[in-house]
Amino acid sequence: MLQGAVRNFFLAILTVPRNITADELVCACDLQHCENTTCRGKVCFVSRRLEDGKTTQNKGCLNSHIREYCQTATMDQYAMNCCSSNMCNVNISVHLNVQEGTEEPESPSLKNLLLMILVPVLALLVLAVLSTLVIWKLAQHRRRRHLFRHDDLGDTDIMLKASMVGDSTLEDLLHEECTTGSGSGLPFLVQRTVARQITLVECVGKGRYGEVWRGVWHGEDVAVKIFSSRDEQSWFRETEIYNTVLLRHENILGFIASDMTSRNSSTQLWLITHYHENGSLYDYLQRTVLDAETCLRLASSIICGLVHLHVEIFGTQGKPAIAHRDLKSRNILVKSNQQCCIADLGLAVMHSQGSDYLDIGNNPRVGTKRYMAPEVLDEQIRTDCFESYKQTDIWAYGLVLWEITRRTVVNGIVEEYRPPFFDVVPSDPSFEEMKKVVCTDQQTPSVPNRLHSDSILSPLAMIMKECWYQSPSARLTALRIKKTLKKLNSSLEKPKQDY
């Protein structure tokens, strides 16, 4: 009704009779009937109206018989202001009672509707993606924290101990921290502290995994194995295995720390272990001629380390059984006391009888073809059976034993170092070449006849042959070889005691 009255009002203005008199005023006008933007009347006015959400303001003249409109009260949708002098309505204004432009909002357009729908949907998608990333990062963080198991020390205590290690030797620190409850290595925060205090001195070896450096930590030599980025799984697996509870053994390479560190604007994967200046057994045999006693010492220490890996230790602080899967002379280090320790556990598998769980890991790398057992080369190995992996270690141990005995002097005779199967395959044999020699032709390395004339080397020659049976189940076990060599050692010591 109000809008109709407003329209009638403007019709009245436009249709009013125009009897111009001398007392008429000249007013500003913007209506259609105005001449030259002015009009004449008794009163000048400015009106303002709100219709369909839009505000319209007009200026014009009123005649005497409709001057009562000037007394119209200001309302929500209409208001008027009048004045009585020439052109007085040029600069006056009028306002409505409500805030203009908010009373009757426009209906949302299709574009606005799409925005109203799409913006929340996109926001939810972004939130879902961010949530997924956060959850994934947390899972990765928990996995890595699981690798570096802490003992019962609180973080504050660990950091205090880490800050004091400068006053102690590395051996003291390992002896203090590496209890049965803390795995093979140091607590995680101490590992990070040690890793960041190491100075790299010289590169002492290279391989497909990366490089090995001699480093110095508080004046003591350590070995730093730096993995290439493409071999991250080997670093991860070695870290996991080395942190296994009760793994520490005199014939397993001593683990100190593992860390991701940033050097030269790139991330490096470090595995820090004890340093042995004699290097690998492979390097040692190149330059060293052995006597029978040293040969037996090397062979016995290797099998002791392998037995410790293969045996499962039961109990709340037990140890799973571990198979190496890449045993070879390059992965065995020679200590200063001429005993050996086994290294490179990047391909190891673990097994626990209680849960019957076989942890193979997810490392795509395979073992060394020259040392592969027949069942691996012809792909007949039972991958779901842990015993199968132990039996491949025994095959490889027999080959390492052959390498050692070749460099042992008997009656003044010794051979140059050669790798297994050097006379039948090239220096870098292919899988098919090794398969033909080992599986099809069923060849084994030739055992020198001179070994059978020595009381120590003759039993070793028998052992290596029993490691090379085509049937895996017919091979000796690591424990049986250890007992045989221990008995051989005892027989050598008795005459000395009698003397």
Short description:
Helix content is 36%, strand content 18%.
Which secondary structure elements does this structure contain, and how are they paired or packed?
Blueprint: H1 2-15, E1 25-28, E2 38-41, E3 43-51, E4 54-62, E5 78-83, H2 110-147, H3 155-164, H4 170-177, H5 188-195, E6 199-207, E7 210-217, E8 220-227, H6 232-242, E9 255-263, E10 266-274, H7 281-287, H8 292-310, E11 321-323, E12 332-334, E13 340-342, E14 349-352, E15 357-359, H9 374-377, H10 386-406, H11 431-440, H12 457-466, H13 478-498
Antiparallel strand pairs: 1-2, 3-4, 3-5, 6-7, 7-8, 8-10, 9-10, 11-14, 12-13, 14-15
Helix pairs in contact: 3-5, 8-10, 8-13, 10-12
Note poorly predicted spans.
Answer: 10-18, 147-168, 177-183
Beta fraction: 15-25%
- Mean pLDDT reading: 81
End-to-end distance: 134 Å
Helical content class: 25-40%
Helices, by number, come to 13
Q: Any idea what the shape is?
A: rod-shaped
- The rounded Rg comes to 46 Å
Structural class: alpha+beta
Largest β sheet strand count, sense and barrel closure: 5 strands, antiparallel
CATH architecture of the largest domain: Orthogonal Bundle
String of helices and strands:
HEEEEEHHHHEEEHEEHHEEEEEHHHHH
DSSP strand tally: 15
CATH superfamily of the largest domain: Transferase(Phosphotransferase) domain 1
What is the number of independent domains? 3
Mind telling me the CATH class of the largest domain? Answer: Mainly Alpha
**Spatial order of the strands forming the largest sheet:** 6-7-8-10-9
**And the CATH topology of the largest domain?**
Transferase(Phosphotransferase), domain 1
